Amino acid sequence: MISTSARPKVTLDGNEAAASIAYRCSQVIAIYPITPSSTMGELADEWASRNRPNLWSSVPAIMEMQSEGGAAGTCHGALQAGALSTTFTASQGLLLMIPSMYKIAGELTPFVMHVSARTLASHALSIFGDHQDVMATRQTGFALLNSTSVQEAHDMAAIAHAATLRTRIPFLHFFDGFRTSHEVAKIEMIDDQTLLAMLDQSAVEDHRRRALNPEHPVLRGSAQNPDTFFQAREACNVFYDRCPTIVQQEMDRFAGLTGRSYRLFDYVGAPDAQRVIIMMGSGADAAQEAVEALNAQGQKVGLIKVRLYRPFDTTALLQAIPTSCTHIAVLDRTKEPGAGGEPLYLDVVSALFEAGRQIPTIGGRYGLSSKEFTPAMVKAVYDQMHAQQPQRRFTVGINDDVTGLSLKVDPGFTTEADDVFRAVFFGLGADGTVGANKNTIKIIGEETDNYAQGYFVYDSKKSGAITISHLRFGPRPIRSSYLIAEGQANFVAIHQSTFLDKYEMLSYAGNGATVLLNTPFAPQQAWDELPVELQQQIIEKKLRLFVIDALKVARDSGMRGRINTVMQTCFFAISGVLRRDEAIGQIKKSIEKTYGRKGQEVVQRNFAAVDQTLAHLHQVEIPSVATSARRMPPLISDNAPDFVKRISAVMLAGKGDLLPVSAFPVDGTWPTATSQWEKRNLADQIPAWDKELCIQCNKCAMVCPHAAIRAKVYDPSELADAPATFAHVPYKAPDLRGSIYTLQVSPLDCTGCSLCVDVCPAKDKAQPKHKAINMVDQLPLRQQESENYDFFLKLPEVDRTRIRLDIKGSQFFQPLFEYSGACSGCGETPYIKLLTQLFGDRMLIANATGCSSIYGGNLPTTPYCQTPEGRGPAWANSLFEDNAEFGLGMRLGVDALTDEARRLLVSLAEPIGQTLVDELLTHQDWEEAGIAQQRSRVEQLRSRLAAIDAPLARRLELLADYLVRKTVWILGGDGWAYDIGFGGLDHVLSTGQDVNILVMDTEVYSNTGGQASKATPIGAAAKFAALGKSSGKKDLGLMAMSYGNVYVAKIAFGAKDAQTLKALREAESYPGPSLIIAYSHCIAHGYDLAAGLNQQKLAVDTGYWPLYRYDPRLTEQNKPAMQLDSSLPKGDLTEYMRNETRFRMVEQMDKQRYDVLVGKARQQIDERIALYQRMASGEPPTDGQPKTKE
Amino acid sequence: MDLSTTYCGLKLKHPLVVGASPVAADLETAQRAQDAGAAAIIMHSLFEEQLIGERHASIYHMELYANAHLEAHSYFPPVSDYRLGKHEYLDHIRKLKKNLSIPVIASLNGTSPGGWTDWAGLMEQAGADALELNVYYIATDPQETCWQLEDRIVETAASVRKVIKIPMAVKLSPFFGALPHLVARLDDAGADSMVLFNRFYQPDIDIAELETRPTLRLSDSSELLLRLRWLSILFGQTHATLACSGGVHTHEDAIKAVMAGASCVQMVSAILRNGIRHLAEVVREFENWLIQKEYRSLKQMLGSMSQSHCPDPQAFERANYMRTLHSWRVQGGVVV
Fold first, then answer.
1. Residue A851 maps to a domain
2. CA atoms of A1012 and A1003, how far apart (whole Å)
3. Which of A39, A643, A1190, B266 sits CB 3.0–4.6 Å from A15 for a disulfide?
4. Does residue B53 register a pLDDT over 80?
5. Chain A: nearest CA to B304, how far in angstroms?
6. Catalytic residue, candidates A16, A42, A64, A68
7. B276 CA to chain A: closest CA distance, Å?
8. A1119-1146 pLDDT tens trace
9. Under CATH, what is the fold of the domain B5-307?
10. Chain A contact for B25, CB < 8 A?
11. Which residues contact A383 (CB under 8 A, 6 or more apart)?
12. Between B215 and A642, whose confidence is greater?
């Protein structure tokens, strides 16, 4: 049991540790959000909004920019003006800063940027951590200073800010993304006085003296010619030469002030070590654990932690290597394909060579994209140095069965200490588990003498995301920079009983561990309901099992579905880490602290949850043998294709680490249509169809974000093999008279958002709350409706040429985007789904990075899918910033291939037959019937080509498909279109090329957590606009219209679905650029998305989101291009705004300011609509007021 | 003419005040009401549901996705410094108090004891001269008895009383079986005044969409009669002073209310319909009438037609109902 006493230490994550220093040392902070660094900028913004001063008693100016390039440019300007500046970034963001970095360094400017080092997108994007981004800046002239832990992220940040002033060399301070940036740990904070003592005030003044100032003007940024550039560039050498010495001096000064001592190259291990590893980053802490363990076993090993990587001080490195050293291994957390070795390795080798020290040195890669790096892997590297013929190049942590580079690792080797308490928690993203665990760490870290560490693993889904929290508590600082391994946990908590069938959670439990299960069942039944595999593990490992119905306790105490407080109380009650009464007291104290200012009711509800928990927590008596008849069901159906079974299934089971190199496509290419095999089973309630009441409008299918409710119309003969409960009715419309209609829900794919029920217009006359679809409990229907859905999917797809293309008709088309990981109730995915229904079998998609690239392309499964003929959207994500250009390139590429096909057709006209060739070349009808006709001609062409023995015929066979028109769609969110990608988007619009751009406008950076974009409306609170944005939303549509030849539409499917459909079709048919701005309700707006459609209606009705289509083709008919599709505003804007937390919080904070912003917003709406009206009427300008309804 | 009156512990220059409404929600309109002669102003109601519900909704939605996704630890700017209650209401009390010379009565709407009643104290601290507690409630649960309902109302009033020292009025609905008994209990619980009666949103039905539509119709003088009856019955039976709310549109309406026993006459619908200037006209005509009829002061008129003072006490009781019906005659098939 842990004893308590007060210590002036805090628990925080690496991002906060670094940002705390950066903020206090800066006057101007320019940022742009990017994972995993976003929190640093957000914290700076939060502190500034609370008027927290920097070291010089002023509040730093915080500026969110349109891109990282913009942020770097702003910092550069601020530095030139004499201010102290900082920024935070990672990955592609850092790449965008590189041009400015050269300038800042070339001008010898004191500056520190803090980087949570992250993977660069190559064959795939990854948000996780390694050193690829930092390594891409080696050449910029920045000093690169590295931290291995949360404490060091704090300490090195201070050393960097001190050293940059004295050296005049800008510093890039980096630490590992996620592993350090997001690890919560107990650290000792540096107070203002100490920090001030670190900074050389005279150097600050020197920096200001160098500032651009018209009172004593100079010029920078000249252009130099061959006569001078070279020499001038060499003039900076002395600054780099003395930089390492100054950094060491600053480290020594820091040690004097804080007692924490660092060297440029820190050596740990046996003084007479023979084998030495050289590395940097968080992995060095895991390596240190291994070193200590191996030396305790009598081995002679050592470790050099590289702190200052650039400028690279070879003398200091050589001094750090013990003279006893016989073997060196250098570990790089990066990959440079084609290089002679990774960068740190090459640096070490050249240092040794120049010094004449002939120590055999091998180099290896580890930890790309946050791949686990454990003491066992470190041991494998030391073992390799001892091998008869050590591998000169190796990887560790994976199984490379292709090039055989990977080292074998003994998974049994562990350095976990007995006096460290280890706990693993399985939760859902939205159940508050991670928040509660962070709170637990705070309690133990800050209220006891113990050290605490928390690291949180998430899957990439936005609905039903699983979180695994790894917590350690112990008497010493915790260096274990890796996850708790199987068999090592003292405590395993399962916060959702639905996980029992999916994950092998108990494998984490050590013998005698305690297991906590949240289950709706009473203790005995809870035992009976466990799969037999779990029962066996519990018995074999002699686990103690506790159960609680946390949802019931939470609901009874007024906490709605939030089980976090209940489960946290359980943890303290049975884990024994603190005395129970003391723990309860601490939880309540923390509740009071968190919610006290928000109202006593909230506090009381949480208190009630704590108090009621203990009475509902039960220990289960464990029998001596497993009794359950139930086994864990297979994760993947037997019918899945081979790739899915071999690869996707392993990833879904959480065992992707085990997949060898050979399992993967070499270039990142991945099959589509795999999400259908991942049955996520998230919904407690699903819609049930009342077929008698249904009017067959298909609106439910239209609004479903996950394509989990679908309609089909088919021949009665298809029903022969239907399951007994399969529901169907005669089809009502005259177009396919005599057909049968079915509306079918997939219970395992539905997320339970209820948008479909909300949109259903068919009400029971006797009981209007009963509609044609109604939410009902899923469990009783799960099996039956799953079978029905399987049957439904096998029914033939409709003949597209026979369907009238209205909303109803569109929903008979197969969605080629299904079961994505988007949020339950997502406001974006219905647009994408509709696009794929309309054009999916001939569309290419360029997708900007953001929510839509994550739910669209984040493995393990892929939601874009295929028709029975194997056609479907071909999708790719390039970057965040270049998406419009990427899509334009696709257009040009497709057109080039189409032209080639047409030329070949002409060349081969004779053997093919002139009539067919002419028909193929002159075909213009790209409606459904026309497409079918052309496809059939292409088939004819193929059969004729087969008979032609000529190289040109073979070439044409490859390109024949291009004779069916391909459509290019450029998809992304407002962060891309309005901000980072705007320059490219604008240019693409100006080219006149036939691309279609769909902007899913959530009015905020949704994926990175609600930062303001230029689409954020006036009066809305967002990060970097915490008090409510004071400027209006950019009118992107109007800007696009100014080109005159761009089709533009503003749509909102929840308000007017027919207009949405019309706009998408017109945009596709328009032979030039099209821009569609689509209202997308989002969790970042702060309301229950079940009301998303009503909110869309209100947005349109109040004039907040006017609907229009601007079609330049109309001008050819002497009509105005502009067509307003929404009626004049009815009702007040506040009717819309008051439903959303983003607006309401501004009102609650400052009513007066809110009223002013609302007034401005009303005025802007009036002016905007007046302008649109004028454009729609072709009338001369008016006084800026909309015409009112007569 | 001395029109002064004491209502809810406040000395008013005359009984005509602006009732709980949007009039007080805007400082400029409130000032215009004062200029028009309002003797006091009652603020728009702060609802229990608003206090608890909005706060919970905001916190809930801000926290729901906190730490839920890998790339976003939250979706809103941090909440700790946000005042998620109705602090602007308190700010508004301060603003009204600073700019008005007439009494400002805050209004709190709720029917269950709980944390929200702390707001009464905050309103007092913000400078409210008195508090009007509106206990509007629709009983829909067949398990809930009228006793339980009345107990809860009394308990609520008592719990508000505990946290404030300023006078407290309780605004009631007319739908109580034994109103005088409830009033007596509220009197014991520390209420200084009773306001008869609240009016409220009543759902209308959209017969095309099969949906309910909330509506609030402005009152007219016909609603006054119900108030007159209960003012008359309660006057003299309780220590609490009485206010008439609902149906006062003209100076005659106001005179009737005072005669029935109202120390205070609240006007809302008439002002919303005719503008604030209408209040000035009613005040002027009210005074003129008393002068013309040679009343010495308002006090002479107060309660003069209450049940205990009027010449025909039975007029306010059940017999009256019977007699009225019997007095109807049918002439040529038409009720006259």
1. no
2. 8
3. A39
4. no
5. 46
6. A68
7. 23
8. 999 999 999 898 899 999 989 999 988 8
9. TIM Barrel (3.20.20)
10. no
11. A407
12. A642
Residue numbers in B near A1008 (CB within 8 A): 71-72
- Domain identity same for A607 and A743: no
The residue in chain B having the minimum alpha-carbon distance to the alpha carbon of residue A821 is B69
Q: Is there a single domain that holds both residue A107 and residue A177?
A: yes
Cβ of B210 and A768 within 8 Å?
A: yes
A118 is catalytic: yes
Q: What is the mean pLDDT of residues B251-258?
A: 96
pLDDT beyond 90 at A501: no
Q: Assess if residue A692 is contained within a domain.
A: yes
Q: Which residues contact A1074 (CB under 8 A, 6 or more apart)?
A: A995, A996, A997, A1046, A1047, A1048, A1049, A1066, A1067, A1068
A855 has pLDDT over 50: yes
Q: Does B54 touch chain A (CB under 8 A)?
A: yes
Q: What is the pTM of this model?
A: 0.92
Determine whether A486 is an active site residue.
no
Touching check for B201 and chain A: CB below 8 Å? no
Average pLDDT of span B89-96: 90
Q: How many domains does chain A have?
A: 7
A333 strand-pairing partners? none
Q: Render pLDDT for B9-51 as a digit per residue (tens, 0 to 9).
A: 999 999 999 998 888 888 999 999 999 999 999 998 877 666 6
Report the half-sphere exposure of A999 (CA within 13 A, side-chain side).
Answer: 27
B152 and chain A in contact, CB less than 8 A = no
Predicted local confidence at residue A860, as pLDDT: 94
Q: What six digits make up the tokens of B256?
A: 């009737």
CATH of the domain at A567: 3.40.920.10
| Helix axes A883-907 and A914-922, enclosed angle (nearest 10) | 160
Q: Does B313 score more than 80 pLDDT?
A: no
Is the pLDDT at B333 greater than 90? The verdict is no
- Chain A CB contacts of B117 under 8 Å are none
Is A422 catalytic? The answer is: no
With CA atoms as reference, the chain B residue closest to A601 would be B115
Q: Are residues A1033 and A1012 part of one domain?
A: yes
Q: Do B63 and A435 touch (CB under 8 A)?
A: yes
Considering the candidates A54, A109, A862, A1007, report the single residue annotated as catalytic. Answer: A1007
Contacts of B67 in chain A (CB under 8 A): 429, 432, 434-435, 438, 456, 467
More confident residue, B84 or A459: A459
A1114 and A991 assigned to the same domain: yes
Query: pLDDT tens across A210-255, in order?
Result: 999 999 999 999 999 999 999 999 999 999 999 999 999 999 999 9
Which residue of the set A118, A179, A422, A562 is catalytic? A118
Listed residues A920, A941, A963: the one ending a domain: A963
Both tokens assigned to A466? 């699983």
Q: Which of B90, B158, B157, B171 is nearest to B123 (CA)?
A: B90
**C-alpha dihedral over A701, A703, A708, A712, to 10 degrees?**
10
Residue pLDDT, tens place only, A13-23: 999 999 999 99
Q: Are the beta carbons of B69 and A1149 separated by less than 8 Å?
A: no
In terms of domains, do A932 and A993 share one? no
Our measurement of the distance from residue A286's CA atom to the centroid of its chain's CA atoms, rounded to an integer in Å, reads 27
Stretch (H or E) spanning A1140: none
Indicate if A523 and A481 belong to the same structural domain.
Answer: yes
CATH of the domain at A1055: 3.40.50.970
Give the CATH number for residue A699.
Answer: 3.30.70.20
Domain range holding A50? 10-211+227-257
Pairwise CB contact (< 8 Å): A465 & B57: no
Residues A196 and A315 in one domain: no
Whether A1007 is catalytic is yes
What does A291-340 look like in DSSP terms, one character per residue? HHHHHHTT--EEEEEESEEES--HHHHHHHS-TT--EEEEEESS--TTSS
Q: What gap in Å lies between CA A698 and CA A691, rounded to an integer?
A: 12
A925, A983: one domain: no
Interface test with A, best of B48, B60, B70 (most A CBs within 10 A): B70
Mean pLDDT of all residues belonging to chain A:
95
Q: Let me know if residue A891 belongs to a domain.
A: no
Domain boundaries defined on chain B: 5-307
As a whole-number percent, the residues of chain B with pLDDT over 70 amount to 88
Interchain CB contact of B81 with A (< 8 Å): yes
Q: What is the pLDDT of residue A4?
A: 39
Strands A275-279 and A265-269: what pairing?
Answer: unpaired
Nearest residue of chain A to residue B77 (CA atoms): A1023
Residues of chain A with Cβ-Cβ distance to B63 below 8 Å are: 432, 435, 562
